[in-house]
Amino acid sequence: MSAKSFYVLKAKAVPARYGLSKNIQTLLQSLDSYHTGSVDVSELGRLVRLSPRRRAAVANTITKCANILKKDPSEVKTCVDIIEMCTEILDIADRPTSSHGFPFMKLPMEIRERTLDLIIDNTFRTQVVVPLVKPSTCRCPKFDRDNVFQTSQMKSLPTILGQALGQEFYRIFFRKKKFRFRCNCELLAHLDGNSHFRENARHIIVHWCGPQSAGAFKALQRCDRLDALSINISKSTLVHLNDRASLMRAYFPLAHRNARMSDVLGLDELLEIRGLQHVHVFHIQPKIVLVSYLYAEASGIRLKVAPSKRLDRAMAEDD
Question: Which one of 74, 100, 213, 312 has the largest count of C-beta atoms within 10 Å of its C-beta?
């Protein structure tokens, strides 16, 4: 072992005899770890750069060794070793830092996938994700309180990692989580506007309602990776009928007075979906149906009042 080692100095009781501070002892021990390969050069440099007290401890130790040399020349060998070690520490700390980030893409695919799994699970704590959408013009029930669960980290993670890692992140994110949509209008908007979601989604949960039901279920046929589909039905499901049922109701109002599931808009397109491993159908409980009804009424009022507000604002500006 080299004489210039903190282990050798400690064996000779040098830290106690010279009164070396805890900061300089930490740096000298880290220098030994750097020489053995357990600490890299950037970590050792950060120990000095990020702590003014440690940098000051290096300078004070050099001064202390110089004073000891004046008083006791027999300590020249030990003092020179300590001064050289301190000089090496300062040289490493003053080296220019690398501007390159961690080479994440050079890691094996299995490690990258496991790392992304941990990041996604730490950000999205629940298995089911309710995507945020822009205000739509459909009159389907909108549960505004669902947006509260979208934290700033949840909003920014797909954007940041999606731009940095591209398809690799989207593949893991969209295949790992279940995505719940409050109506088929929202589902169709995501399928048409997000190709990454359409290509990688594996489990979709949707409330079967809305005038876009036929288009949404037809768009699901383009989801090659779709593995499971969960459908929630309620009284809102029977509001929109397909063209055949609407035509028959016009000519046979008594026979088609009550809507049937076979007449619901989107059923034909739903039955054409192939390749699903799991299909779940749930009937929403009456209490939840009442809440959905209230939100549907609120949505209708909002859509009715919004044009009037814009018209009043335009007239006020003209005046």
Answer: 213
Q: Which of 75, 83, 23 is nearest to 54 (CA)?
A: 23
Contact indicator for 20, 61 with CB cutoff of 8 Å: yes
Alpha carbon distance 290, 308 (integer Å): 28
Question: What's the pLDDT score for residue 280?
Answer: 93
User: In angstroms, how far is the first alpha carbon of the chain from the final one?
Assistant: 91
Could you read off the pLDDT of 245-282 as tens digits, one per residue?
887 877 777 777 777 888 899 999 999 999 899 999 98
Enter the tokens of residue 272.
């054409």
Query: pLDDT per residue over 52-73, tens digit each?
Result: 999 999 999 999 999 999 998 8
**Residue 287: is its pLDDT beyond 60?**
no
The H-assigned helical ranges of 106-242 are 109-123, 152-165, 167-176, 184-193, 195-200, 213-220
DSSP three-state, residue 225: coil
Contacts of 182 (CB under 8 A, 6+ apart): 130, 140, 141, 142, 143, 146, 207
Burial per residue of 79-99, b for 16 or more beta-carbon CB atoms within 10 angstroms, e otherwise:
bebbbebbeebeebbeeeeee
CA dist list (Å): 12 to 17, 34, 48: 9, 22, 25
Amino acid at 223: C
pTM of the model: 0.62
Q: Is 73 exposed, middle or buried (0-12, 13-18, 19+ CB in 10 A)?
A: exposed
All structural domains of the chain with their residue ranges: 6-93, 104-318
Q: How many CB atoms lie under 10 A from the CB of residue 76?
A: 12
Query: Treating both helix axes as pointing N-terminal to C-terminal, what angle do 52-71 and 22-36 enclose, rounded to 10 degrees?
Result: 100
Query: 100 versus 198: which is more confidently predicted?
Result: 198
